[in-house]
Amino acid sequence: MSQFVRLQLVYMSVLQSRHHMQCVWNCVQFWVCCGVTVSAVQVLGIFLLLPPVMKTGSVLWLVCLVVPLLSLSLVASSTDPQVMQRATGKNQCVVDMQASNFCAYIQYIYILVKR
Q1: Neighbours of 27 (CB within 10 A)
Q2: Measured distance CA(53)–CA(106) in Å, rounded
Q3: CA trace torsion 37, 39, 40, 46 (10° rounding)
């Protein structure tokens, strides 16, 4: 196998993996947005003192069956030819002092409220 063929195989595998991860990310985004929308509709109905918009069984049926099946349809989308031109994001998980102070403050308030 020549060097060019090996490089092309690596390129194609990276292309397919990027496409797959993009499709999975779209699927997760759709699933989360639908779940938040259903929850927001229910909470808005409670705040407006209306009867429940959907019964518990209907919400469970939507969130556990219908929405995941609809979101899985996003996995089978066609390959984007520009996927290799996009820059990948950096995984930077840095907890700075301000975030840690905020978490400590929330825990302190929680302890005070529980007393």
Answers
A1: 19
A2: 33
A3: 150
Of 71, 73, 72, the C-alpha closest to 34 is: 71
Q: Which residue in 45, 46, 37 sits closest to 66, CA to CA?
A: 37
The tokens for 91 are: 């995984």
* pLDDT tier, 93 (very low <50, low <70, confident <90, very high otherwise): low
Whether 32 shows a pLDDT value over 80: the answer reads yes
Instruction: Answer for the pair 31, 10: CB distance below 8 angstroms, yes or no.
Output: no
What letter represents residue 35's amino acid?
G
- Measured distance CA(74)–CA(26) in Å, rounded: 7
> What is the reported pTM?
0.63
